[in-house]
Request: fold
Amino acid sequence: MSTIPKNPTTAESPGSRIESDADTGRLDGASRARIFAVLAVIVLFTEVAPMQYTIVAAALQKIAPTFPSVGANINWAIIVFGLIGAAASPLIGKMSDVWGKKRMFLVCGVLFMLGCVLDAVTDSWAIFLIGRGLQATAIATAVIAYGLIRDLMPRKYVPLGLGVTATGLGFSAIGGPLLGGYLVDNYSWRAIFWVLAGFTLLMLPLVWLVVPESKLRVTERIDVLGAVLLSAGAGLTLIYLDKGQDWGWSKPLTLAWLFGGIALLVVFVVVELNVARPIMDMKLLFHPRVTLVLGGALFASFLIGVQSYALGYMTQTPNSDTVTAGVQQATLAQIQQQTGQPMPAVAVQVALDPGYSYGNGFTLLEFAVRIALLQAVLAMICGAAAGALARKIGARVPLVFALVLFASAGVCYAVLPHTWVVFLWVSAAFGIGFGFYYASMPILMVEAVPQEQQGISLGMLGVMQSMGVAIGLAIITAYLNASPITAQVSVAGQPPQGSVIPQVFADHGYEMGFWFAAGASAIALIIAVIMRHGRTPATGGTAY
Reply:
């Protein structure tokens, strides 16, 4: 059996120190009540990231009118979150190994809270994105939580703890959609961020009082340059994917964004191969066990980004008859304002080019109750089930099952009628896969590497998942920007005049996004099928 090379920044490096397993602060002698209280607080605190994602992704259709000039690029409210989170996760994960996991847990909470307050009060798109960037540090709380569970939980509870952490205790799954819908429908989208800030403010003292600090420490410098190169390279590449349709895919100035991003990512790899203490260990990254897990995470996450955005947006969009009637009424009102004379409705004819088949005009709460809630509850249940199952048969089989559901869901979204009933049942199947996927991935990573490399490897996993979501959103944004709907308005038999309807897109844009994500999920499935590790019962990290 091949071995993973030792990280030069860990136990064997003169400038670093890894504590033995007995010195991590593991709660082996604690009562079950104490153990599960610590686990519950850790998981509740990490739920702020999926909770905001669930709420904000579904609420984009309601947030968009505040920033009318951004169009389909409203998706950058999610893309920036994933992009900054991808760059921050390994950096914060390494900081937690150096300075303490509990300490960085609290720092992430404070930064997230500040970002929420910023978004709650601003009318500037640029400042809104800055707030989202601050909130993105919450993604790293999952990486830190995996490390805390690995260090603090008794070994037999580690797979279960990882599975529960991946999908939550139900607060974000059940409360997130309902809370977000209630707040937006009865107050405004800004209330989302005030409540998220309040939740974090309540959780901070609980973490301080209940969760012990891990004793595991690594003494080394932080590779800030690596984080900057990674985030900048990924950012330029995503901008090309997002704006290529508008700017022209093959134009030199457009390609400059792509080539610049690729160049920075190449420099990132070169730097990481040559620095003494990289933010991302390239030898570890390119080991087959780790590479396959990370590759699967990247491709599988495309559908997570596409699905979370598209379903909320499509069902909250008014149907075509409502949009047509709205354009007609707006035209009649404009004519009366200009001429001072009313005009009969039959004199104004409106046709949509092309038409579209989706659209229910749901409020956010209706979307939550009718679609999102079932998916979230199934994901929560299946995450815990997958963690328990991994202890008996390994994590690879649950992952394969999850990716079969992912690929199937993507195809169903693309080819079946775009009704909310279809979305309900397909998203329910996706929710089952989501739970199995998010529980399996961290378990596979913990089982793939030695203990002293688990922290950075889980940081890499966070990077790939965040990048996958961001890429999926950038791709569907490009498809939607290329699929506008025009209202052709004819007044009193005159030749029609066309105008683009904002925030409404043709079926083709969404369908292409779903096909793209389904194909990516199929690639992830192939990776999982050929994966060699994860075929034996999970050990909680003692396999290597």
